[in-house]
Specification:
Layout (H helix, E strand, L loop, with lengths): L1 H21 L4 E3 L3 E2 L6 E7 L7 E4 L5 E6 L6 E7 L6 E9 L2 E10 L16 E4 L1 H4 L29 H6 L1 H7 L3 E4 L3 E2 L14 E5 L6 H13 L3 E6 L9 H4 L21 H4 L5 H9 L14 H18 L3 E4 L7 H14 L4 E4 L6 H5 L18 E3 L1 H7 L14 H8 L11 E4 L12 H4 L2 H13 L3 E5 L14 H4 L22 H17 L3 H5 L1 E4 L6 E8 L2 E8 L5 E4 L11 E4 L5 E3 L4 E4 L4 E5 L1
Parallel strand pairs: 2-8, 9-10, 9-18, 10-13, 13-14, 14-15, 15-16, 16-17, 17-18
Antiparallel strand pairs: 1-3, 3-6, 4-7, 5-6, 7-8, 11-12, 19-20, 20-21, 21-26, 22-25, 23-24, 23-26
């Protein structure tokens, strides 16, 4: 009963934001701020009928009005306050229109310097999940009156009911599995008529979607994750928003969105942004065209838009204590403006990390978007610390389906790709993965799921090569799926997360043998990797493919981990002589099985597609 009452109270608080805007009250974003931030200028956006026609006065110690921006739409007012030296306090923003005076309460809070903004790096493993499809922990928020789309069961593109309460319940499972960071797809309000479950059409940047819970629920989730040693990476979407966002429905002015706020489709040719031969029209279309018609494309070149987005990021970091950001469709936003955004976030939180979605299928194109890239102009630095290694994902999904030769098949393609890492400013800050919510699953069908060696070799590569690994929910259970039936069907429910599930991965109840085997293999490797400095910080040395076998090592401070993968569909007797520099002893332990491996012989017998992770 207590939980139900609390949920109803939280729901009421969330919906009050929507109700206030409909009653004509002034909406304030951000709702509060903090004293002592590095950035001393605060943009306060007021939205309400005719608020832009008001005279403004702020009388508070240490606070002064720097400037006021009145866009064409008089329903908006942007006040820029100078907070240099201002102490935590509550004060009023006075709005005067003739004899009518309205006072808007505001608060500068004391900063909380507890553990937050830790960042993430190659010592971590991220776990990507879709909240709506993960675990339904609170059925009371499945249906929220007043929102355009309601939870309606198991239809592929509908809301299914997963929420923050479910994510919190699953933290024990994730901690036991061995992941160190969780990345949920966006949790903010998506008050769209349909397909709102994925979260990428945000309609209020400052509110958690009430079908997931409340802002307070999110803070509690982050706090609970931290208590279990798990970081939280927040998915943000600054290239576009949902067409039901109040910023689009009631435009401040036509410059807030690209193409004068009129729909113009992008051709998705983001290579044109870094192409020295590209015509201006292609580069312009890539970053100024809209992703789709119901996702208006924000104009980050407008300084008021950019300040709004920067402050939104800082607000979530300070308020919820998140540890990193994943920025959606990164190259489609304005490159120079987003560089300023990166600098502002990292100036405030130096340990923080940001990864941008850079869906480009070759390493030169991905490198162009990483900070200090050797292939980008020095005067156009992206300032983006981490980029996503889509080329490696493609190789991991294809090369293990063919036998390896010594030149251009199978694992030889992984070797060849890694030999080109010189193109990256920092290969250790690449986000590596087997699949995600926008791609086919690593097991595209049941036949692939039933090839354990395929997943074992891919996961071993993912967790022992350079970069920051990311798993997609259900990878550890050999869940299969492809896009042939649409994204909604691809993003299936996590087993055990919903009422009536016969298989429960959270408890291990009724797990089929393949799920159990895959889960246990993943858990063994993840738990071994956790805290392993050799893998997180060690140098990577690899050998050219020989006998269809790929051998590489991670080395740090006299310690060595050597990985051996047989890429053949036949047993192989590997001649050990050429690998002496990564075999420092005559015996080692195979991490995957616990067996002692004798390396004193000239030849090491490998089984079909066998994988060894040797720790010395």
């Amino acid at each position: 009963m207590k939980q139900t009452l609390l949920s109803l109270l939280v729901l009421f608080n969330c919906l009050s934001v929507f109700a206030a805007s409909r009653r004509g009250e002034v909406q304030v974003q951000p709702a509060f701020w903090w004293s002592g931030m590095e950035e001393q200028t605060l943009q306060i956006m007021l939205h309400g009928p005719g608020v832009g026609q008001s005279e403004v006065n702020v009388a508070a110690p240490g606070i002064a009005i720097d400037s006021i921006h009145r866009p064409a739409n008089t329903n908006y007012l942007f006040i820029y306050l100078n907070l240099r030296g201002a102490a935590p306090q509550k004060f009023d923003i006075e709005l005067r229109q003739g004899r009518r005076v309205q006072r808007v309460a505001y608060e500068l809070r004391q900063r909380d310097h507890s553990v937050k903004a830790q960042g993430f790096d190659a010592s971590d493993v991220l776990y990507l999940l879709m909240p709506d499809r993960f675990v339904n922990g609170n059925k009371d928020n499945d249906v929220v009156k007043g929102l355009r789309e309601q939870t309606s069961g198991q239809e592929p593109d509908a809301r299914h009911g997963g929420d923050l309460a479910g994510m919190t319940l699953a933290l024990d499972y994730l901690a036991d599995l061995g992941v160190t960071a969780v990345w949920p797809t966006p949790l903010q309000v998506n008050d769209m008529p349909s397909h709102s479950y994925h979260g990428y059409a945000i309609t209020d940047y400052y509110q958690i979607d009430p079908r997931y819970g409340s802002n307070e629920d999110y803070c509690n989730f982050v706090r609970a994750a931290h208590e279990k040693g798990i970081k939280v990476v927040q998915d943000m979407v600054f290239n576009h928003c949902g067409s039901e966002n109040f910023l689009f429905r009631d435009l401040p002015d036509s410059t807030w969105f690209n193409n004068r706020s009129v729909y113009k489709q992008t051709a998705y040719r983001i290579a044109a942004v870094g192409d020295s031969h590209a015509v201006e029209a292609d580069a312009d279309n890539a970053q100024n065209g809209w992703f789709v018609s119901v996702m208006p494309d924000l104009n980050q070149r407008n300084p008021h838009v950019l300040r709004y987005l920067i402050q939104n990021s800082l607000w979530w970091i300070e308020y919820a204590g998140i540890d990193g950001i994943r920025q959606d469709t990164y190259p489609y936003a304005d490159r120079r403006a987003m560089a300023q955004w990166n600098e502002a976030v990292l100036r405030e939180y130096p340990r923080f990390n940001i990864v941008g979605e850079t869906w480009i299928n070759h390493n030169v194109g991905v490198s162009f978007w990483q900070k200090n890239s050797p292939v980008a102009p020095a005067d156009n630095n992206s300032q983006l610390p981490t980029v996503m290694d889509f080329p490696l994902m493609g190789l991991l999904n294809s090369c293990l389906d063919e036998p390896t030769n010594d030149w251009d098949k199978g694992l030889a393609r992984i070797y060849e790709y890694l030999s080109q890492d010189i193109v990256y400013a920092d290969p250790s800050r690449l986000l590596t993965f087997l699949s995600n919510h926008d791609t086919d699953r690593f097991a595209r069908n049941e036949a692939q799921a039933n090839q354990p060696h395929r997943y074992r070799q891919a996961l071993t590569l993912l967790l022992t090569l350079r970069g920051i690994p990311q798993l997609y929910y259900g990878d550890e259970l050999a869940m299969a799926g492809n896009k042939s039936k649409g994204d909604g069907a691809l993003r299936m429910n996590f087993p055990g997360g919903f009422e009536g599930d016969k298989v429960n991965a959270l408890t291990g109840e009724n797990l089929p043998p393949l799920m159990r085997e895959t889960h246990d293999f993943t858990r063994r490797l993840l738990r071994w990797r956790k805290g392993n400095e050799v893998i997180a910080r060690g140098t990577l040395r690899h050998f050219a493919i020989n006998q269809g076998v790929y051998v590489y090592a991670r080395q740090l401070g006299g310690r060595t981990v050597t990985v051996i993968l047989n890429g053949n569909d036949r047993p192989e007797c590997l001649q050990l002589g050429r690998y002496a520099e990564v075999l420092p002893a005559a015996e080692a332990t195979d991490v995957l099985t616990g067996r002692r491996i004798d390396l004193s012989q000239d030849c090491l017998q490998l089984g079909v597609r066998e994988t060894l992770v040797l720790e010395f």
